[in-house]
C-alpha cells in the first residue's frame, strides 16, 4: 500500500524547485471558479467531483502533488488516488490558504472503517444505511445551530440528499435480501449497533472538534460535505475490490455510483454559491 506524504508549503516549494516541470503533476482539485481566481502556476485542474471519471488522464509514473483551498478536499482526492493504485502522492497541507501565507490547519485525514470482504450484500447495505443516518443527523443538528435562513436551508438540503440515499438503500435491501422487513424494521436493525461513523467511516463530531472554524462559511460546509462523499466513494470502491461475493461487489459498486453522483451535485452547489 502506498503512503500519502504530507508537505508543508516550504517543502512543496523545495520539491517543485528541485524537479523538472514535466517530471511531476501538480493537481488542483478545487472548482473551476476557484482555480480561475488564483492557482499555483503550472497546476492542472481536475475538480474533486470529476476525479473519479478522469483517473486515466493522470500519469501513474509521475509523482502527484495535490492541493485545494485548505487541504481537506486534496486529502480526500489523495485517498481516492491511492485506492486506485497511484503510488507517489503528496498532499499540500493547508492548501492555497497556507501557500499564500495564511494560517492553516494540520493534515485533514479522514477515518476508514474496517471491511473484511466477507460481508453479505445485506450486511453491506445495513452498515451503509447506518452511516448515512449519522451524516443526516449531523446536517440536521447543524441546521438547528445555524443563525441564518440561508444556512438552515443549505444544511436541510444536504440532509435531504442523505434521506434519498437511505430510500435507495432500503429499496436495494428489499431487492437483494430474502428477508422481508418494513422500513421501520429495517431502520431498527440498521441502527441497533450503529457507531458515530458517517459515510466512508468519517467520525464527523471528532473531525469537527479537531478543526473548529475550518468550515464556517457556506463554501466550507460544501467543502466538508464533498470530503465526506469522496471518502465514502473511496470506501465503497476499495471494498468492492476486496469483496469475495459477486453480489456484494455489485452492491458496493452501485453505492459507489450513488456517491459519485452526490459528489457532482455538491460541486454544482459550490459553483452556485461562489
UniProtKB/TrEMBL annotation:
Annotated Pfam families: Rhodanese
Source organism of the structure: Pseudodesulfovibrio mercurii
Record's signal peptide: none
Domain of life: Bacteria
Name under which the protein is recorded: Rhodanese domain protein
Location of the Rhodanese domain: 20-104
Stored PANTHER family: FAD-DEPENDENT OXIDOREDUCTASE, PYRIDINE NUCLEOTIDE-DISULPHIDE OXIDOREDUCTASE
One annotated GO molecular function: thiosulfate-cyanide sulfurtransferase activity
InterPro entries on file: Ferritin-like, Ferritin-like_SF, GlpE_sulfurtransferase, Rhodanese-like_dom, Rhodanese-like_dom_sf, Thiosulphate_STrfase_CS
